[in-house]
Every structure is written in C-alpha cells, then in structure tokens.
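ARCHIVE CARD
CATEGORY: sequence design from structure
SOURCE FIELD: tokenized fold
FIELD CONTENT:
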C-alpha cells in the first residue's frame, strides 16, 4: 500500500515549539516520561489517584481494579456516581453562564447553550423519560441529527441510568432494526428529519420501517424531535413529540446514582462476522478516559473553543462531543452540516467565526478538502487555532503536511490519535507539548496505557518489525463486554493465541520505528476502514447475497485517494454473466440495495461480475487474490491451491 511505503520513508520530525510547550499541561518529554514512570510503578494507583481527583463521586470507591473474572475487568466497582452530574451540575456553581455548546445549523443559524441552559434541557427530558416509565438499566436507541438535542438525549439517559445506544443517522432501517432488536430497546429518540447539505433525509419514517421488521415489540415509546416540520407518520400513544413532553417537565431532575460499572452506553461496531457488535462501556472508567485524554492529548484549557467534527453516531462523538468536553466544562462547537455546503470553505469559515482553538477531524475529510480547495484555508483567519487533531485511520504524510502548513500555519501541533470504539478514549497519541511529531505516526501511548507489538505467540517484537497491536494491562476506559455475547467478547479481544488471553488484542497491525514511535498499518481482520468508518466485509457480502439476483459475493478493500479504502465487490449472479448495459443496470441495483440494507457508506465503489470466484479445492474463497485483482496488480502469489485459475482473467478488469 502506497501509504505504508511513504510512511516507512518518513524522516521529518516536528518538535513542539517553546511557545506551545511552556503553556502545555504536559510541558516536556521528561514530564511525559515521569507520568509513564508513575504508571509503570503502580498502574492501579496511578488510575485511582486520577479517578479520585477528577470525578465527583456520590460514594467514593475503595476498590480499584477487580480482575478476579478477567477479562471482564471492573474498575472502582464499589463507587457511585452519575456521569451527567459530572458533565453538567458540577459546573453550575462556578460557570453556569459559560457557553457549553455553540451550535451551527446546516443553513448557518447559530444557537448558544450555556451550562445552565443545557442542564435544564437535560433535566426536562430526563423527567419526561421517567414519566414514560423509562428506568435505570433500560436501553434507549437514539437516532438523531447532529444537534444540541442529540447531546441532550444522551445526557438525559445518563442522568436516569438508562443505557443509550446511538445509531448513526446514515444507517438504514435494516441496520437500525438489528440494533434496536439486539439491545432490546424500550424507547427510541429520533427526529422527523435531518438536514445535511441543504437536503432533508427521513429519520422517523426510517424508524417506523425498522419497527415493521418484526421483533421490535420491546419499544414502548418513540420520542420525536421536530427538526423540519416535514410530513411524518405519527402513531400516538407510542409516538410523542419531544417539545410536548418536555414543555411542562420539571427543570430539576435528581440524578440516578449508579455503580461505577453501570453500563453508560452500548455502541455497535463492525467485526469480522456479519453481525455488528454491541460494545458496552462503563460509567466511571469511561468518563475517566475521556477526562484524562482531554487534558493530556487535547491539552485542554478553560479558554479553549473545542471542535470535534465527528457525529455522535460514532465513538468519537461520544467521547469528544457528549462526554469529554462537557466533563471539562469546555465551550465546544457542534455543526449539523457537511464540510462542503454551501461551499468548500465551510469548516474554515466556522473556525474563523467561532474562534476555534482545537480542531479535531478525520483524514478522509482533510483529503477531500485538499481536493476541493487546497488553497481555501488561506482565505480565512485561522489564527485562533492552537492545536489540530486527526482520528479514524492512518493519516498519509502528504495530508498531514497540508493540515500542518495550510490549516495550522506551521504553528499548531497535530495530535494523531489512535484508538477504537472499544477503548473509549485515545490510546496512542502525542502529548503535544512533550512529544516531537512524525507525520503519519501516532507516536507514543498515553501514560498508563501499556501498548506493545507482539508476534503470534504473544512475544514482543523488536523495533522495526511488524506485529499485532496489543494493550498489555487493563485500563479504566476499556470495553466491558459485548452486549449479550460475553463469549464473542472473549474470543474477539482476548484470544488465547496472542498473549495467552491476557492482552487486549486491538485488531490492528503496527510496528515501532527505531525511536520507539508507533505506526499503525491496518486491520488484521476482515474489516475495512472506509472514510474512517469500520465496515465488515462479511456484512456487505451478506447484504449482497440477500438480493435475489446474487448467488455469491466476496468483498475486499482497495486503497482510495479520499476514502482511504474503497469497497470492491466480486459477484456471481444466479442468472447468466451480464453484458453491455446490463452490467451498469445490475451494478446500480446492487449498489442501491446495499445502501438500503446497511447504509450509503457501505455501497460498493465497484462491482465485478464473474462466473465464479477464485477458490481453493476445498471451496474457500481466496481473498488475497481478489485484493490483488482489485488493485489492478499482477498476481505474483502462489496459486497452486487454486481450483479454477481461469477465473482470474475474467475478474481482472471491471465487467463490460
Ligand atoms: C479503527 C477503530 C476511535 C476513532 C474512530 C474510529 C483505525 C483509528 C487511527 C489512527 C491509524 C486508526 C484503526 C482502529 N484507526 N484511529 N489515528 N491511525 N488508524 O473508531 O470505528 O472503532 O475504528 O480505526 O484501524 O482499529 P472505530
């Protein structure tokens, strides 16, 4: 892969400026090393100390790590807290009138919500949910546009101890249905429609479609936020309007105190089988991870205007929109729209307008903005920026340099943050006042995170050698289990063969360079990273074979200039091999089908038809050959086990 080659040759290094270091929370490499040494000495007390200092406890904890039932670790288990109290109430005495959220809608309308206002909105919705008999431990699916109300919905669940499960608004009815069903949700919070790039997209109608797909009898209430006033199906008494149920709801709601280990939320992500995994997070450990990473990696200061562009449908939006910034008492920007509407300078305009200091986005967004207007940032005053961040996939050095020079004006460090839905917060990322940056490397682990690269037997490999990325010791913000499937949790993350079931297996390959810097190479499983989003190849294959025309399908990734990876599907039809305009017609049909089955992000970029797929004699599809064909490269691998070599010719080029 070209990215890997270019990062292998990367020798540029960017030490932090004195100006940045002198004000930083971790202000030198020695200070970073001292934190690591403290954790090294006694990692449990290292975390306990911070959990005491930075979380407001209703009942203090006396136990730190409970590993008796490893890998089902518990942290601070006898403590009690409420996460929403930690994000809202704690600020009321000192900074109730500070703006918590600067919201900018798709069409440019700006709404400011202070901590007092946000607290009131959350309490009102929490009371309204309680009045609908939604209780501690109940699951609530949230399917919302990216607005203040999405944060309010999540915080209101946290306030009453309900477990939220946010489903990204771009997912289809089918995907939504699977998640509602798996979670056993009692309620859904949604909106009539969402607006992005000037276009309206249905949400409530999609919820209804999901509800019709059977087995969703658990759902008693659907709360609908009115975003557009568009025509929607509405079935009282199950369906209620957000504005009606909150109108007369009390503006104080005593938080539900929960155990440290009480699940704060589940969030579904793709794995290597067809079924998405419900990643379950804790309350206290998760919150602690969000807090320390805000301090160490985002170098958070009370004067910051923080902007993470991620949607709350992803973990990034959970940790760095809904929980991290609010726990810190920050002012943050939330933007409803897309970076290219109404023009390709929208992000830069927002930074200028709201004086953003910390800007956190994804490489795919950076690459598309370079393509659409590489010189556009120069037309805006971006002098408020002091720190940039990247997340979701490896950032190629060219995009890194552009981000650094054109957006950060060579003044702002870039924190390339490696982490996952399962880790809850940053794992490997530079403390920006301390660590010299190398474009394309996420640098070093956070203090207290014992990341390493191991071989198949679980032994650490030397620098320069690739291997499996693992985390050797438990950490507070880690995944607790997969919702309803503890066996799959153990198998996926603590398999016996790497680290003998003791290490957390991330599912990425990586290596460390001669200076010990970490470089992420990519997934080791059948998971693609398309525009920073995880997609299981099996999920897309299952969707394709569910179509009546399709007999068999195999999906692989191929490097893509903007999206990082593109989805390439090899398809065998039940009928005859298609020709001429049939190819285009069936391709469109299948692409639309996948969008309906999973969501538009999963649409194959290319479909190649064959009379068969390359298989071994035992009938196993040889995906590595398909990956080579997808890239348009010559096959140089050993094909002696291939049953039907002639098929390679047919699959070599896009079907005509
Ligand atoms: C996978 C996790 C948690 C952020 C959003 C994605 C890849 C994530 C980086 C990075 C290289 C990265 C990994 C990881 N990834 N950040 N900075 N450099 N790769 O969360 O959907 O759970 O995906 O994204 O492959 O395993 P996710």
């Amino acid at each position: 892969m070209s990215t890997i080659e270019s990062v292998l040759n990367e020798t540029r290094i960017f030490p932090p400026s004195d100006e940045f270091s002198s004000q930083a929370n971790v202000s030198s490499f020695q200070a970073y090393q001292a934190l690591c040494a403290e954790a090294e000495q006694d990692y449990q007390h290292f975390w306990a100390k911070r959990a005491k200092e930075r979380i407001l406890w209703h009942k203090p904890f006396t136990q730190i790590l409970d590993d008796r039932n490893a890998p089902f670790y518990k942290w601070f288990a006898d403590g009690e807290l409420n996460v929403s109290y930690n994000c809202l109430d704690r600020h009321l005495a000192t900074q109730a009138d500070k703006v918590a959220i600067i919201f900018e809608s798709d069409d440019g309308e700006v709404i400011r919500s202070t901590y007092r206002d946000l607290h009131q909105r959350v309490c009102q919705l929490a009371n309204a949910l309680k009045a609908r008999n939604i209780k501690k431990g109940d699951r609530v699916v949230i399917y919302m546009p990216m607005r203040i109300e999405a944060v309010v919905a999540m915080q209101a669940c946290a306030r009453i101890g309900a477990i939220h499960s946010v489903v990204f608004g771009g997912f289809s009815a089918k995907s939504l249905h699977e998640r509602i069903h798996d979670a056993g949700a009692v309620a859904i919070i949604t909106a009539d429609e969402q607006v992005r790039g000037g276009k309206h997209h249905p949400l409530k109608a999609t919820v209804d479609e999901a509800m019709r797909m059977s087995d969703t009898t658990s759902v008693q209430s659907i709360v609908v936020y009115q975003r557009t006033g568009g025509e929607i199906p509405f079935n009282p008494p199950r369906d209620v309007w957000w504005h009606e149920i909150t109108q007369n709801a009390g503006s104080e709601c005593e938080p539900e105190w929960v155990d440290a280990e009480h699940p704060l939320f589940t969030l579904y992500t793709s794995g290597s089988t067809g079924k998405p995994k419900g990643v379950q997070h804790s309350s206290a450990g998760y919150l602690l991870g969000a807090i320390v990473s805000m301090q160490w990696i985002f170098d958070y200061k009370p004067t910051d205007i923080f902007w993470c562009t991620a949607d709350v449908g992803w973990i990034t939006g959970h940790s760095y929109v809904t929980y991290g910034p609010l726990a810190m008492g920050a002012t943050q920007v939330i933007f409803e729209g897309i970076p290219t509407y109404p023009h390709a300078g929208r992000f830069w305009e927002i930074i200028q307008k709201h004086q953003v200091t910390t800007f956190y986005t994804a490489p795919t967004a950076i690459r598309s903005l370079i393509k659409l207007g590489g010189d556009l940032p120069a037309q805006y005053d971006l002098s408020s920026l002091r720190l940039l961040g990247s997340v979701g996939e490896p950032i190629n050095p060219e995009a890194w340099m552009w981000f650094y020079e054109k957006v950060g004006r060579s003044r702002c460090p870039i924190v390339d943050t490696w982490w996952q839905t399962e880790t809850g917060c940053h794992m490997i990322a530079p403390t920006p006042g301390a660590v010299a940056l190398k474009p394309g490397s996420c640098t070093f682990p956070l203090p207290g995170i014992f990341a390493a690269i191991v071989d198949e037997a679980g032994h650490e490999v030397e620098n320069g050698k690739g291997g499996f990325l693992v985390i050797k010791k438990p950490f507070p913000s880690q995944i607790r289990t997969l919702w309803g499937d503890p066996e799959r949790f153990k198998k996926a993350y603590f398999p016996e063969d790497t680290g003998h079931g003791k290490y957390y297996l991330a599912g990425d390959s990586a290596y460390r360079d001669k200076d010990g810097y970490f470089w992420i190479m990519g997934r080791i499983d059948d998971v693609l990273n398309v525009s920073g989003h995880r997609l299981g190849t099996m999920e897309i294959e299952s969707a394709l074979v569910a179509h009546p025309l399709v007999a068999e399908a195999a999906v692989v990734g191929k490097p893509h200039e903007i999206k990082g990876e593109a989805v390439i599907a090899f398809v065998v039809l039940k009928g005859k091999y298609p020709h001429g305009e049939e190819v285009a017609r069936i391709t469109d049909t299948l692409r639309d089908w996948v969008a309906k089955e999973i969501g538009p992000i999963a649409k194959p970029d290319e479909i190649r038809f064959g009379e068969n797929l390359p298989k071994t004699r035992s009938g196993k599809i040889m995906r590595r050959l398909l990956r080579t064909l997808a890239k348009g490269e010559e096959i140089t691998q050993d094909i002696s086990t291939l049953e039907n070599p002639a098929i390679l010719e047919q699959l070599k080029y896009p079907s005509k």
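CARD ANNOTATION: The first strand starts at residue 65 and ends at 66. The pocket of WT7 is lined by residues 269, 314-316, 391-394, 416-421, 442, 506-508, 520, 523, 529, 532, 534 (CB under 6 Å).
SHELF: design records, drawer C
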